[in-house]
Design a protein that fits this description.
single chain; mainly alpha; about 130 residues
Length: about 130
Amino acid sequence: MIAAVALGLMYAMDVGELALVCLRSTANLVAAEILVAVLMIVFLSELMKRKGRIKTMVDSLRRLLGDPRGCGAGPAIIGFLPIIGGAMISAPMVEEASDELGLSPEKKTFLNYWFRHLWEYTFPPTRG
């Protein structure tokens, strides 16, 4: 909201019009649904971390693949699901899986992004 207001002011939007746009955007049902969905993803991710489910998933992938470099399989699976906030689930998986590899935070971020978006070119095009 702060960024939207700053952007509106930066482009010399009328203050009354800016207030109306802010009011309409906060009362928008779709925006509220997206907000709730993102909050639930954050909640699920935190719950999985605290209960050790992320570690369990990563350990299972390690046993299945036999190599810690297979940490990209987790984000690739998450990327195949049509969900918002996928990074909130896959980033802890990469963090857990890459501990023994000694990767920099930048490389972990790259791996997470790369493997989560691996499937984009295989999805059918959408009409918008």
